[in-house]
Design a protein that fits this description.
This protein is about 25% helix and about 25% strand. The chain has twelve helices and 15 strands. The chain has helices at about 10-15, 50-55, 105-115, 130, 155-165, 205-220, 245-255, 265-270, 310-320, 350-370, 375-380, 400-410; strands at about 30-35, 45-50, 60-65, 90, 95-105, 115-120, 145-155, 165-175, 185-190, 195-200, 225-230, 260, 280-285, 290-305, 330-340. The strands form three sheets. A seven-stranded mixed beta sheet has the order 3-5-1-12-9-10-11, sandwiched between helices. A five-stranded mixed beta sheet has the order 7-15-14-13-8, sandwiched between helices. It has a three-stranded antiparallel beta sheet with strand order 4-2-6, with no helix packed on it.
Length: about 425
């Protein structure tokens, strides 16, 4: 067997530098793009002045919302994210785009961005999802700050808690986490005047969904948008969301020249999706023999300024409230909440990771209060073939929880006994 056969299929190209990432792509006569972003996380845009920036030598074109009235909002599940904020419209986080600057070099484009002036009417900045849920709070979106509410119920938790010998109730909080792939968001676009097709070289995790979202936003048939996938330099969920794609397409169509856009690391941190912070209020009941009887949970997920995949992440997180442990009686509610923070989307685990912090902490606390070895406590409650999840899915195969716990305990050199 050739040694190469044992490698990942793309390993050799990557280690030898032959792999072509979005930022490696160049064309002759190429222009460069930069974005003027929000100057306040929650405000109405009252004036934007691009006159000084337009006069800068090397600036080819500046696009504002007034130039693209036909362009529609975009978004993974709900189309709630504007391409550019126009006069009288609201900026909802610091990543919102106010103008697209196209220039002969990225240095000139960056200088031009600093010359754009904007006046805003500031509103209360809502960074706390609990504040966002209060009745007197300003609305971030017109339909309200609670994007979605999901419920979960299995069995009879009231009866089960009454039968529990020990009940533990706590609140847990997780924070924003940036996925931090090595490659920031980047891409190149070219518009072919002959066939009206815009080609985009930009990495994405959902190729056809991105194509469809770009097309609907621009009001074009899908076949007029072609996305060519370069090597993706890490993603972890972050590159499910649109980043450079629509701005690149608009710039290419407007200038009829190749255009390139690469985020700075700071821009990526500000503008692109994060892992959702959760507030988890969990109540767990157990018998004195160490068997779980009930779990009740309230989940508040901060989805930031826009929905992205928050609708799915937060309520799926709630479904993982018992982890890999048998609990016959479960009750839950999950709120997906808008704030003026950077919007949140997919990141490894899709809500399950945040919830693990809560249910595993509960398991340790319960084991300690019962005086039971925490490994044994987990083993006697762990899923097996035939177990039922909180949303009533019956597990029929691939249930290796007990084997995993035992192996982890062996590797850790666990000696047993209560903590």
């Amino acid at each position: 067997m050739c040694i190469r056969d044992s490698f990942k299929v793309d390993a050799q190209d990557k280690v030898t530098g032959q792999a072509q990432y979005s930022n490696d792509i160049y064309f002759d006569n190429m222009l460069y793009l930069k974005i003027k972003r929000a100057i306040h996380p929650h405000a109405y845009l009252r004036r934007i002045d691009i006159s000084k920036a337009q006069k800068l030598s090397g600036v080819i074109k500046i696009i504002t919302a007034a130039d693209i009235p036909q362009v529609k909002n975009f978004g993974l599940i709900i189309k709630d994210q504007p391409v550019l904020i126009g006069i009288g419209q609201k900026m909802r986080y610091m990543g919102d785009a106010l103008a697209i600057v196209i220039a002969e070099s990225k240095e000139i484009a960056s200088k031009a961005v600093k010359l754009i002036e904007a006046d805003v009417e500031k509103l209360e900045v809502i960074s706390d999802p609990l504040r966002a849920m209060e009745k007197d709070v300003p609305l971030i979106h017109k339909d309200g700050n609670i994007l979605a509410t999901h419920y979960l119920e299995k069995g009879n938790t009231k009866k089960a808690f009454a039968q529990a010998d020990v009940i533990v109730e706590n609140e847990y909080k997780t924070t924003f986490i940036d996925q931090l792939p090595l490659q920031v968001e980047a891409g190149v676009a070219f518009y072919n005047e002959k066939d009206g097709v815009t080609k985009l070289w930009s990495a994405t995790q959902w190729l056809h969904d991105t194509q469809a979202d770009v097309a609907q936003s621009l009001g074009l048939p899908k076949e007029k948008i072609r996305i060519i996938q370069p090597v993706i330099g890490g993603a972890f969920g972050k590159k499910e969301d649109i980043s450079v794609h629509i701005h690149l397409a608009l710039a290419a169509i407007a200038t009829k020249r190749p255009v390139k856009f690469t985020y700075t690391r700071e821009e990526s941190m500000i503008a692109q999706s994060k892992r959702h912070p959760f507030i988890i209020r969990m109540k767990t009941g157990v018998t004195k023999k160490g068997y779980l009887t009930a779990c009740q949970v309230e989940v508040i997920g901060d989805t930031g300024a826009y929905a992205s995949s928050g609708l799915a992440v937060v309520h799926k997180g709630m479904y993982h409230c018992t982890g890999p442990y048998n609990v016959d009686n479960v009750k839950g509610v999950a709120y997906t909440v808008y704030t003026n923070n950077t919007y949140c989307g997919a990141m490894r685990g899709f809500g399950a990771t945040q919830m693990a912090f809560a249910y595993e902490s509960q398991m340790d606390i319960l084991a300690q209060q019962l005086g039971i070895d925490p490994v044994q406590f987990r083993l006697q409650n762990a899923y097996e073939i035939g177990s039922t999840t909180p949303n009533s899915q019956i597990l029929t195969n691939s249930v290796g929880v007990k084997e995993t716990i035992k192996e982890a305990a062996d590797i850790a050199g666990w000696k047993g006994g209560p903590r």
